[in-house]
Amino acid sequence: MDFIITSKFNDVMCFIVLLLSFRRAVIILGETMRKKGKRNFERLIVVLLALVICMSNISFDAMATESKTSAKEETLKSEKSVVEPEKQEAPKSEKSASESKKPEVIKDGLGTRDASIYDENGKLKDGTYSVTANTDSSMFGVTSCKLLVQNGQMNAIMTLRGMGFNKVYMGKADEAKAAKESDIIGSIPDYSEETKGKRTFWNIPVDGFDKDITISARSSKKRKWYDHTIRFEKDSLKLISNKIESPTLEQNAQKYLYQNFIDEKIFTANADVISVSGDSYTVPFFEKDEATEISSIKFKQSDTPDFKLGWHVSDWSVFSNRKKDLHAASTKSLKIKDRSAGDVDFDVTLKIYNGKDFSITRSNIMDDSAPALVEKTFHIKLKGAPAPVDVDFAVKDIKTGKSVPNPTIKIEAPDGTEVKSGGNGKYNLKVGVKYRLEISAPGYVDKDGNEKLSETLGVTTAGTIEKQLLAEKDSKHKAKFRIVDKDNKAIKNAKFEIIHKATNKKLDAEADGSYILKDDQEYEYTASADGYISDKNTIKITEDKDIDVVLRENIKIYKANFWFYSLTTYEKYSGEYELSVYSKDGERKEYVQPDSEGKYPLKRDVKYYYEAKVPNHYLTEYNEIPVSFNGEDENVEVRLVIDQTGDYKLSQQIDKAKDYLKTVVVGTNPGEYPQGAKEKLEKAIADAETLLAKQDASQKDKENGGKKLAEAVDACKNVQNYAEIDVKVVLHINTKNKFNSPAQVMTLKVRGDECLKYGYHKSAIDAKRNVTVLDIACAVHSKLYGEDFKKNPENYFAYDFVISKMFAEFKDMYFFAAVDSKSIEKIERTVVSSGSTVTLSSYPSKEKNTQFLHFKEKNLSAYEGEEVSLHLLGGEALISFNGYDNPQQGYRICFENVNTNKSFETSTATDKNGEIKVKFPSAGTYRVKSVKNEKQNSLLMPQIEIKVKEDKPTLTISASKDGINIDNDVVLDKDHDDSITYVLGKSKGLAFSVIDGNFANFTNSEGKVMIDNVVLRRGIDYEAREGSIIISIKKEYLNTLTAGKHIVRIYEKNGYAQGTINIARAQNKKDDEIGANDGQKNDKLNKHGDTSGNINGRKAFVNTGDRGGYKLWIGIGIAAIIVFLGLVLVRRDKK
């Protein structure tokens, strides 16, 4: 500050002297003009010298100094504002009366809790509470939930958002399929006025709060079980009543009715062929085989201690049972009378009674006098029998396919009477009746060699029935087996056995050692011999045949591949290990060395042992049994099961926890953590480190310590403030009839709890508090559809492990999601980082081969007329086994200038590498308007934004700054600091400095150096260094340029600087010598600190940063003009 005051005082004083000197000079000049003589002229010279000295001392940089002072003051002011922040009033929040009245709380060793709902032991008091239940899917969303607490037991009554699910099970879906019906939790619709059109479930056991509980739900339509999770939020608990508001007896009876009958089927037999539509059942005439008549039906019986039931049939005459068995309490199968007259219709009413009311007996259920809790009527239709049909028979030879001559056909009805054919040779048979059929012919047998073909016959339609017989001469064949080795030599003392598979009967050999086999029948043989591997196989023959059975010698040496299976990763271990394999000869160990493939040669039937050392692992108890081999495969696998030691697991978990701890920042901002969270985790880590250091702690204790620490990390993650990110979203909103729409782009700020607003739940621990694609999808729909989406989100978007609706489209549509051009499936698990690009797409399912396109390059900048190289990548959106980074050939791209709305299409298409070169005609921001490819009908448009700037330099270039070319033997232009002359064969290179450039902006993807529009290669053609940006172009590249003028451009993020390089040739030897001498002089002159040098005979003016010298030259110039005028006047006076 003192320096600034002194500088200003000096300037003021010099300025006063200057004015006085200038005034005196004018007076003297006037006297001179009045012929005062030579003495006045001398006085004038003295005054002018004083004038020059004053001018050289005046600081013309006063403005700059003031600017610096202002900047310094601003800095001081800024620092002061940091030290003493401005006080702001906290925003006042409006509170309701209920909020302003704080509940009474208890603070003790159990924590802080509401005294109105918790007792002194920290348990919920008996009563009915409302509680928020969050699930992992909106399809399985809970709209309301009550918690019933009694004697410490908690059960929930929950209502789902619709009728899509009718049963739940507290466990996995696979477990639910095999669970008892008593373990399944049923539901009813319309539990109350508030839940009309929705399903309500109870009793849901609740064993805790703020944790994910596994639950599975069965779809009402598909009858398929799906895995879900449910989480009861402790902070949402509100007391409704001190009483237990349990469902009524009638509601429980209704749930029993729905769970066992309405949501299931009412029949026990043939349920898979009996169809149901609403409350109506249709019983077909045939069973599933379409040949056996359904002769009886049986209603489901499911009495429990709580309920009894009765089936009240409207017309018992439909059945042929004894009269004493035809009543509502009967458990018998009901035999259907003759259905030959056609369909039979009747109603049956199921009534549910109080099982604990002893006044309700079997008798008053039978006479329908007992009061029912609930009832349901079903309509039953028994389909009538089809009319009799006429059939005839065609008997064919199995081998030839020709008709068998003179067959005899006999048909017997179930009562033993023979059915005769009519005059037309046809038999009139009843549908659904089982007849006995026999067919025979002279010289023929059936396929098993029997004299007659005898079987049960049932008919369903009229027509010709084909049956086959086998000529007796073709029914048996001779098979002769020979047991040989690989060299086709007979094996002595071989054993052979063959059985008929249909009858499991062993065959005896004929006198010549052959076997008689039935035609086309399956036989199984076994051949064995000492020292050989047995052969077991099946065979069929249709002619006499000699068969060689080749036996292989027993394997003597096996090639054993030992490998490790990790119980930690559940996959093959690929790390380092030491392994020793040996056999025992008494106490002596005989070690086996592996071959070049790493396999161990092990002898047959020898026991082998092994010792293994795997860093940070141990062999489990599964490896204590030795191995030996006598099988038929030479290559064998030996799996050794290992697990990480407790020390290693704990130390790994400690390292993970410490890494995670580094990311924990306490505060109230998004992604930060509340007070106490970090301290708890630090304590958990400290406890784990103490346990790790304990020498007497068991490996199991340390393993459990690792699990406990992992739980502490998860607990910390669970309390993290919801993250918030800025994300770019690319949308492809296509419909069934309109596709190939241009991509839409929006930038959103999204929080990690966005999806919770619409009933979704994220179960993955790392996704819960972070922003996922599911959160982003919800935010996008909220942005697009506003209040309509917030009121009815399911009308616009639906996700249940897969996206089933997006942009209000769901029927005949496919949906696609990607993060940074990488396809994803589990959008609720995929965490997105700030700055990422998320793609959400819909397209019609009829366009199955729709291509997802994207550019390898992200958003770019270029100049007018500059050629930009783009690479188009992609893959099939539905499923791309090769990923989405495959070059896309044959695409023309239409770009639109969003500033002018003018568009242009590329003249060429992308090549086999997906590359296309584009020149943008004018400044502006360009985006893709459309993409064309004759071979591709449906596309998800690529998105890119290219900012095109005016083609003019915006930065300043210098060839002389800081003497950057002193050692290069180049010629500088003192009048044009952006120009430099390089002499071929003499100069050593050249350098330019971008004075106002930023080196960081040069080193990014937009920094480059071009000469005559050719991009130079960094490290090969030039080097770059800081200060601001200094580019040194190598002589190897400069020597390739032709003589003449060349334009150099140096680009950085904010623009480019442009200069000129003149390539010159040395004129002659003399010039070269002069240049060399000048160069030597230059070397002497240009020592460190000497900023001016004579380079090749020309003065090199170097910008040193000193801006004070020009003031002296201005003063000298003014003085020179005055002296010149004085001399002219004196000379004129003499004349």
Can you give keywords for this protein?
1135 residues; alpha+beta; six-stranded mixed beta sheet; 70 strands; 34% strand; disordered N terminus
Which structural class do the helices and strands define? Answer: alpha+beta
Mean pLDDT: 84
Strand adjacency order, main sheet? 6-9-10-3-4-5-8-7
Shape: extended
Describe the biggest sheet?
A: 8 strands, antiparallel
Q: Enumerate how many helices there are, as a single number.
A: 16
The share of residues in extended strands comes to 25-35%
Radius of gyration: 49 Å
- Low-confidence blocks of residues: 1-8, 58-102, 107-112, 1069-1109
First CA to last CA: what distance?
Answer: 58 Å
Strand elements, count:
70
Percentage of residues assigned to helices: 10-25%
3D architecture notes:
The chain is an alpha+beta fold. Helix content is 20%, strand content 34%. The protein contains 16 helices and 70 strands. Strands 6-9-10-3-4-5-8-7 form an 8-stranded antiparallel beta sheet. Strands 60-61-68-67-63-64 form a 6-stranded mixed beta sheet. Helix 1 packs antiparallel against helix 2, helix 8 packs parallel to helix 10 (699-718) and helix 9 (677-693) runs antiparallel to helix 10 (699-718). The radius of gyration is 49 Å and the shape is extended. 26% of the residues are buried. Mean pLDDT is 84; it is low at 1-8, 58-102, 107-112 and 1069-1109.
